[in-house]
Amino acid sequence: MGVKIFEKEKQFHLFNSKISYLIGECRDGEIGQIYFGKRINENQIILGYQTLAGRPYCNPAEYDESYTKELACLEYPAFGNGDMRGSAYEIRQANGSRVTNLVYKSHVVYEGKKPIPGLPASYVNTDSEATTLEIRCVDEVAKVEVTLYYTIFEDYSIITRHVSFKNVGNEEVKLTKALSCCIDLPDHEYDLMQFEGAWGRERYPHVRSIEKGIISIESMRGHSSANFNPFVIMKRRNTDEFQGEAIGIHLVYSGNFIAKAEVDNFDKLRFTMGINPNWFVWPLDKGEVFDTPEVIISYTKEGLNDLSQNIHKFMNNNLVRSPYKNKPRPILLNNWEATEMNFDEGKIINIAKKGKEAGIELFVLDDGWFGKRNDDRAGLGDWFANTDKLPDGITGLAKKINDLGMDFGLWIEPEMVNPDSDLYRAHPDWVLAVPDRRRTLGRHQMVLDFSKPEVVDNVYYHLYDIISTANISYIKWDMNRSITECFSQGVAPEYQGMVYHKYILGVYSLYERLIKDFPHILFESCASGGGRFDAGMLYYAPQAWCSDDTDGHERVKIQYGTSYGYPLVSMGSHVSASPNGQTGRVMAINDRANIAYFGTFGYELDLNEVSEEDFEQVKNQVVFMKKYRGLFQYGTLYRLQSPFEKNYASWMVVSEDKKQAIVVMYKGLNTQNTEVEYIKLQGLEPDTVYTINDNEKMYGDFLMERGLGTLGWNEPWYRSGKDFTSRMFILNAE
Ligand code: GLA
């Protein structure tokens, strides 16, 4: 692993045992892309790189028609200098020009990886895990230095990139576009796989063909959003779960973003991703620096399962920071779907007690515990306990829960305020709003202006008071509406284009302060369910509430889709009541649990209200999860049958040593006399005999080549007359 440098040709080859990323100086000094894909010989040099013009175009060198930017593959293309495709950055200069030419100046290579100030980013545990290449380029006229950062990791088919801008002149310039990457590929025979949806149906995979022209996804909601996730895959047209080439790109960022695939008339593909340039204007004064968020670029030649497995391991080892990193997550009981805001201490203790009886480890008090918060019209922003509901406050309740033998967790929504709150009455100028204009409410609330440090400070002090005076071991950090009327009151017009980005930097800074003060706390992020499920958030909160839709049938799709880009252990997944609160669907408690096991696992209902039989099942489930959670949360995931294609779905996890595996099969609507399918398992040891559910024995190769027949689970399948059923198989090596 490392970076091979060809000093004379100014070419840089980042490689590990699996991938190669080869870039070099073009004829006019710009950095160009040469190759990205499966590992090739590190001694490959391309002489005369980018002498490409077929017929005269615009040429950077006077009277030399042999080189044009229009046909070049570039690493960080400028606007207006001969490349007619979309740029990666734009700098508005004092004279009004946006034209720039970046020219290579120097480079440095070192072991390890530096953090990005104020932003989430992947990291190394020891310097020897990765090598970083920094290439410094300069625009001599705008007097801006642009450094391209590349890190290659030894154990992963992954390159990370980010860019930093520095004003090295005397005059202010304005960044109006600063994307995190450009990936120029020599052909466009790819499909774009995006993860889209809305509240309650987050991250459904959707595949679009990449053809001549432009396709893109974006968010202008101020958060990454349930609508489009900041993770996409570009895959070869015939790539499936088990074979074929694919490139995954995550933006490690939680605010507005854009991901764009552009195919020019020469069939070359340009992919760019980063902060959405819409309403982004970042002034850079003399000496100032701006860092873009990071992108994680993953690669496979072996199908989407391989791509996801690589990402999962990378995120678990090199992105998540938490005392719970690579540790089993506590089984929790959350009161939201049981009580919403209608509770008092007695009711809460009663629910928690039953949870304790079932063996649950952590009780989480959700929304409604503070201020005048009896419904969603009041109280947000007033972070002091409502003593009508909780006479001994959070301190007292936490102690009572601890005395039951459970840990205590708390819900907060620090970025928001209700107009009907003491905080808003005291500081009406602390919300994002345009003077004299209507304010658009969402869930009866407004967004606090986290671009202002004094607002973040105020929220921090109140939260500090609560957390430091109670024994809290978990926090669910919610964010329940998108940003509208993005305007920072009292701030000069020329700084308004900074507000979206400064807002999310404010969120990150508050997380950072709380993590520093309370390093033992397990954070779970949430945004009306899965509206901010992104790689940026995982850096602060190692798990995220997947969706407010807790219906088991719906969760099959939501969690299956989420698994393309995010590890199982990051997915907040709970068993809730039946009929389900969102869909009204009835589903047996074990079927609900069979889906929820593949995540953090917990319960979202009042166990006092379930039947005795179901409660016995819950007790068994908790015992079962405690035994197998290492495998459920950290096993290697194989998606086998997609719920987006059929009435069935199946997937499995395999332990690192391949001695244990768990397979789940799920069926939507009940069918009669259906075809028998053999589901080919993956990732087993071919010559090992596996005992299936302590019963039948089969060789690994038989299970992988012939498969596990659906006939064997016919009994609940068509005789039961039930829809929405599942079957779980535990495989143990002999
Ligand atoms: C959001 C969350 C829910 C719950 C409510 C509380 O919708 O996604 O889980 O916490 O807020 O208001």
From TrEMBL:
Keywords: Glycosidase, Hydrolase. PROSITE patterns: ALPHA_GALACTOSIDASE. It is an enzyme of class 3 (hydrolase). GO terms for molecular function: alpha-galactosidase activity. Pfam families: Glyco_hydro_36C (PF16874), Glyco_hydro_36N (PF16875), Melibiase (PF02065). Residues 30-284 form the Glycosyl hydrolase family 36 N-terminal domain. Residues 649-731 form the Glycosyl hydrolase family 36 C-terminal domain. This is Alpha-galactosidase. It comes from Pseudobutyrivibrio xylanivorans. The lineage of its organism: Bacteria, Bacillati, Bacillota, Clostridia, Lachnospirales.
